[in-house]
Each structure stands twice: as structure tokens, then as C-alpha cells.
Amino acid sequence: MGVLDHVSNLFEWSHSHRGRKKLKRKLRNQLQTVEIKVKMDCEGCKTRVKNSVKGMKGVTQVEVEPKQHKLTVIGYVDPNKVLKRVRYRTGKVAEMWPYVPYDVIPHPYAPGVYDRKAPAGYVRNAMTDPKTYTLARASSTEEMYTMAFSDDNPHACVIM
């Protein structure tokens, strides 16, 4: 928010039902990219999912990737409202996009992280779940042994 927005919010007043003046503040949503996983089988599902959020206030762009079962909404929207609207309008099970690129996770093939249903190059986000986070995180001894045989380490073992 800029200076003019702040000043205009200071001088914006509304009357409550009892007659007292109350400061009314508008909370504006930030520009966000919301990714949602929705199962789409056919072209009809694809258009239904796309039209469910297309007319929503604040939405600037909608992209649907039916092969990955992914809906991407860009705009000044609340992610939870977008998720609820997709669930209500389509009647389908929808969830926030649970996958991240496998380069982000230290151990992408740890139990609980690797998902066979994930699109190519993606694994489940283990950093948000405390149970799988400890499995996906590398310990200091693992890093020490990995660096001992690494080509990036100038003092690495040259036996290999």
C-alpha cells in the first residue's frame, strides 16, 4: 500500500448502527498465484473447473492443466475462498497443490515424500508436515559423508 492509500484510509469513516463514528478499514488482497489439485477426466470437467473461478472478483488469469490435474488462479484473491468456490461449484474433491519440484527437497525419495501419483519432476512437500520433515531432512553425518566423495569439494577423496 502506498502513501495515498494510507491517507485515504485515515479519512474514511462510516456510521455504525448506534450512530457513533467508526473507522472503516479495507483489507486488500495481494496479487497471488493459487494452485489447486482437482481431478479432471474430460473436457467437460476442464471447462466446469475453469468457469467455476473465472467470474470470481479479483481473478485476472485462470489456467487449467488437465494432465496434471492442476488449476492455477492468478489475481487479488484469498486462496481459501478460491478453494471453497471450486469445491462448491464443481462438486469435486479439491485441495491445495501439495507438490513441489524434487530439487527443493534434500531427500526426494524418503518415505512419505515420494508419491507415485505426482506429476513428473514433483514430490510431496515434506517441509510442511512434521512427521515426514525429519525423514526428508539430511543429518550432519550424511552431509559429511556425501561431501567426502563429492566433486565439488577440493579436499575430497581422490581414490575413486
From TrEMBL:
Lineage start: Eukaryota, Viridiplantae, Streptophyta, Embryophyta, Tracheophyta
Q: Which organism is it from?
A: Liquidambar formosana
UniProt-recorded name of the protein: HMA domain-containing protein
Q: Which intervals hold domain HMA?
A: 31-94
Q: Is Metal-binding a UniProt keyword of this protein?
A: yes
Instruction: Give one Pfam hit by family name.
Output: HMA
Q: Which GO terms describe its molecular function?
A: metal ion binding
Q: Which UniProt keywords apply?
A: Metal-binding
Q: Note the InterPro entries from the entry.
A: HMA_dom, HMA_dom_sf
Identify the PROSITE patterns for this entry.
Answer: HMA_2
